[in-house]
Task: structure prediction
Amino acid sequence: MTTTLEPLLRQHPLFADMDDDTIHRITGCAKNVRFRSGDVVARQGEAADQFFLIREGRIALEMPAPQGGAARLQTADAGDVVGWSWLVPPYHWHFDLRAVSEVRAFSIDGRCLREKCESDPRFGYQMMKQFSTLVADRLEATRLQLLDLYGSPGPGTHP
Amino acid sequence: MSNILHTPDPAALRLGTMLPEPFVVVERNEETADTFTLTLCPAGEGAARSFEPGQFNMLYAFGTGESAISISGSPEKTEGLVHTIRRVGTVTSALDRLVLGDVVGVRGPFGSPWPMNEARGRDLVFVSGGIGLAPLRPAILHALAHREDYGRIVILAGARSAPDVIYHEQLHSWMEESGVEVKLTVDQAGSGWHHHVGVVTTLIPRARFDSSNAIAMVCGPEIMMRFTAMELARAGLSDDQIFVTLERNMKCAVGICGHCQFGPGFICRDGPVFRFDRIRHWFSQREI
Ligand SMILES: Cc1cc2nc3c(=O)[nH]c(=O)nc-3n(C[C@H](O)[C@H](O)[C@H](O)COP(=O)(O)OP(=O)(O)OC[C@H]3O[C@@H](n4cnc5c(N)ncnc54)[C@H](O)[C@@H]3O)c2cc1C
Result:
C-alpha cells in the first residue's frame, strides 16, 4: 500500500519541505479515505487517533451551538491538514468534523506516528515543528475571526 | 513619502466641485439588515456622470450632511449612479430614509481609481471584507466586461455571517464565469452554509494566481487590509503589486480642508486608492 501512496502523499503541501525519509515514515501510517457529504468524520470527545490531509472536498469544524444545532467554526479544503489532537494529550477531538462535500483524504494514524516520534526524537522534533506552525497559523486566524473584522463599527472606532 | 503627495490644485475649489447637484433615487435595494443600494439619476436636465472604478461621490442628505460613498455600479453603464451604503451614523441613517423619487445632492466623482490599466495582461486578485466589496465591484465589472485584457480573476470575499453578504446573487453568478474563481467566507455559520468559514486571509493560499504577474486590490477595514497584505506577501506579491483603499472622515473631498489627512497626504486627493508600498510606512502607525 505504501508504495502506491507515497507519490500521492508527496503532492500534498504538508510534505513540500520534508525529506524522503520523513515522508516514508509518515506514509507507513497513512491510508486513503473517502467521505460523503454530511458524514461525521470525527466527534468531539472521541479518541483522536488520526488526522487528515485533504486531497479533495471540504471538511467543516463544528461545535454544538448554545442555541441548538451546530456552529460551523472553520472549514478546511484540499491541501489543508485537519486535526492536531493526535499530538497533544489526552488525544481527544475538541470539536466535530463533518464532510461538507464529497471528500477524498489521507488519514494518518496518530498512534502509529506518535510511536515513531517517541522512538526517534529527531523525527519527533520535525513533526512538532511542522504541527506547531500549523497550530500557530490556526491560532492567528482564529484571533482575527474573534475580532469581528467586518461587524458594525462601535463608537470611536474611526477617526 | 513625498511620492504620495500631489501639488495642491488651485482649481479644486471650482464651483462645480463644491456645489451638490440634485439626483433622484430611481431604485433602492436592501442588501443586508444595515446595508442598502441606491441608484441615482440626475434630476431634470442634469447630465449622467462617468467615473473610474474606485472613485467616490459626496452624497448630501439635505438638512443633515454629506458622506463620502464609493461608486459601486458598472463603469460601463453611466445612466445611473449606484451606491451601496451601510447605516452607521447620522448621514448614512438619513440616506437610509430615502425612498424612490427623493432627491439627494451629489458632488463628484473624486479620488484615485483602481489600477485597471496597469493591471492589463495580469492576474487580478480582489480581496474584500464586508462592505469593502462595494468599492471593488466597479473594478470587477470592468474586468469582466474586458475579459480579454486580463488573466485569471480571483475574488475573495469575507463577511461576518451569511446574512451580511452583499451582492449575494451576483457573487454566485460570477462563480459561473470561466477563468473566474470566487471564494466566499464568513466568520460565523450554521450547518446550512456550504462556502468557507474563517477569515478572508485564509483564502489567499487556496486561490490560484500567478503571484509574479498579479495585481491585488484590497478593500475592507484597515486591520483586515493589513493582514491581507501580509498574506499576499507570503503568497509572493511585492508591495507594489498590492493596492488598498483607505477611508477617513471627509469634508471638502478636494484636498483643501485637511479632514482626511493621512500622513503627509490627503485621502480625498491622493487616494482613496493607494499602492501599498507608498503608504506602508503610514499604514503601520497606529496614531495615524
Ligand atoms: C473614500 C470613501 C469611500 C467610502 N465609501 C463608502 C461606501 O461605499 N459605503 C459606505 O457605506 N460607506 C463608505 N464610506 C464611509 C462613509 O463615508 C461613512 O460611513 C459615513 O461618512 C459615516 O457618516 P455618518 O454621519 O453616517 O456617521 P457618523 O455619525 O459620522 O459616525 C457614526 C459612527 O460610525 C463610525 N464611522 C464613521 N465613518 C466610518 C467609516 N468610514 N467606517 C466605519 N465607521 C465609521 C464613527 O466612528 C461613529 O462611531 C466611505 C468613506 C470614504 C472616505
Q: What stands out?
A: Chain A touches chain B at residues 58, 60-62, 65, 69-75, 77-79, 98, 100-101, 141, 144-145, 147-153, 158-159 (CB under 8 Å). The pocket of flavin-adenine dinucleotide is lined by residues A 153, 155, 157-158; B 56, 67-70, 72, 84-86, 88-92, 131, 134-135, 247-250, 272 (CB under 6 Å). Residues 6-149 of chain A form a domain with the Jelly Rolls fold (CATH 2.60.120.10).
